[in-house]
Amino acid sequence: MSVQHNCEEHKNLRELVEKIESKLDEMHAFMVETRVIYDAHQRRLDRLESEVFGNGKPGIATQIRAVLWIASGCLGFLALIACQLIASWLS
Question: What separation in angstroms does the CA of 11 have from each of 23, 76, 82?
Answer without folding.
Answer: 18, 87, 95
